[in-house]
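Second attempt. The first submission of Peptidase S1 domain-containing protein had a stray character pasted in from the spreadsheet, which I only caught after the job came back as garbage. Lesson logged: always re-copy from the clean sequence file. Corrected sequence (226 aa) follows.
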Amino acid sequence: MEPLFSEGSAAVERSGSHFCGGSFYDQNHIVTAAHCLQEAISSQIKLPAGSTTWNDGGILLDVADFKIHKGYSSNLMMNDVAVIRLASSVTYSSTIKNIDLAKKAAADGAEASVKGWGTLHSGGASLPVTLQTVNVDIVSREKCASSSYGYESQIRPTMICAYTEGKDSCQGNSGGPLVSGGRLVRVVSWNAAHFQTILVFMLILPTFVNGFSTLLLQFKFRLTDM
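This time the job returned cleanly.
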């Protein structure tokens, strides 16, 4: 992974340690992965933002509460998405702004990127101080679930994959953004290696986010877009 500007990204700290990544949905909400918030309480969570270093610079945001998708399954990694509500609205700046949600699914083979403060290799014991990015290519759900990749029934309807030979997104990047065409397509959910190492991303449903934040829907995902 390579260093990147922090725009749109937030780190998720639990009890003072970096745990996951997240993305600004708007000035009051952060989107992340559900498994990042399992057994957590709001007072444990802090959100460093506005800096490329998760432990220095920028601002530290407090959390009012959060909601894990009611359909989340830790066994199947289904609906692995959550929304954090900030204790107070954040002011956008050159280093803090939202990433607009994609209005349609990214096409198979589309260029995309993942960013976060996770480890630089699988099983790594230390985290990079500086925000990193890795460029990947979208792999459709149908292709990822085929025998070519070997994941088959593990790939559920709300998942898509991404792959680039020799590159990966490791521990500590869960919940971070998958961006394609300048828009937030999915959040990092899990990765594994069978025939080829792939990253699996979870669909963000605006109906879920807006059901929590009472915002008006500006667009909808359809099942046919997944």
